[in-house]
Amino acid sequence: MTSASDYYVFCQDVFKIYKIADLEVVALRGLDLAVEPGEVVAIVGASGSGKSTLLNILAGYDAPSAGNITVGGKDLLRMGGRDIEEYRRSDIGFIWQQTSRNLFPYLTTIENVSLPMMLTNTPGRERRERAEELLDLVGLGHRLDHTPEKLSGGEQQRVAIAVALANRPPLLLADEPTGELDDATAAEILDLFGTVNREMGTTILIVTHDPDIAYKVGRVVMIRDGKMSTEIRRRVTYQRISGEVETEQPLEEFVLVDNNGRVQIPRDLLEQLNIGEKARVQIEDGTVTIRPGG
Fold first, then answer.
1. What does the pLDDT look like over 35-78, one tens digit per residue?
2. Is residue 198 exposed (0-12), middle (13-18) or buried (19+ Cβ within 10 Å)?
3. 45, 63, 94, 179: which could join 49 in a potential S-S bond, CB 3.0 to 4.6 Å?
4. Could you write out the DSSP letters of every residue in 110-131?
5. Hey, is 34 helix, strand or coil?
6. pTM (predicted TM-score)
């Protein structure tokens, strides 16, 4: 049995229910997730599967209806309003898909990057130096005085990454960060995430629809109907993230077992086995066999 102390991000049996008029919509239903410090994990799923809901909860923008969530040893369910504000300032960097949501259009590049540091009372000279350092890291040290409309979509997203890293957060959350970019620019952004992870040791969670993401990161978690269902890993340890498709190392897909011992078997496998509401489970010689229940 895993515990929160073993991981940087730890979610256990998390539920999120939205009430709309007289209706209840269950966005997350018993979700489990564990991420090690410095790990890069991609979260993939269909629209409405709960991906963005999970990211918003981890970012402190939303609260779960039930379950346990710890990030960096902090229990998000026990935090008050001020604690959540401080958590969002110092512990989390967030990048939206829409580049326009990440930047203030009337501020220059260096002003956008400096702004989060003003909220933590960082001295002016230190803000400037830190902002210049981050813009150099993302390859835009020559665009300090440009406003967002003078930058391409890829450049705006690079600035957004610098903004998200301004207060040195140990966790970076990205919700479809390449969704509005062409393939070449998207690859550059993923390479940049790899640089951030390698040089700063930042833990990174990326929600994406990229069909090739399994060949670009070390671990992909598939979310279906508000729960983690399957996981894809490299057979050889592979931690980095890259915009380049890496096909030399074989992939392995696993069905996940949650902390309550529940297993989500993909619907297509159940249909192949003609398993409906009931199934027979048999253990023999260390092998678990599942058959139609009749």
1. 999 999 999 988 888 899 999 999 999 999 999 999 999 999 88
2. middle
3. 45
4. HHHHHHHHHTTT--HHHHHHHH
5. strand
6. 0.87
Exposure on the CB side of residue 238, measured as CA atoms within 13 A: 21
Give every CB contact of residue 278 below 8 A, 6+ residues apart in sequence: 292, 293, 294
CA-CA distance, 116 to 106, in Å (whole number)?
Answer: 15
204 contacts 235 by C-beta, under 8 angstroms = no
What tokens appear for 167 in the block? 């207060």
Distance CA 207, CA 221 (A): 10
- Using alpha carbons, list the distances in angstroms from residue 202 to 142, 168, 275: 25, 9, 43
Token pair for 4: 């929160």
Nearest to 145 by CA among 160, 153, 130, 135: 135
Is the Cα torsion angle 118, 121, 125, 126 positive or negative in sign?
A: negative
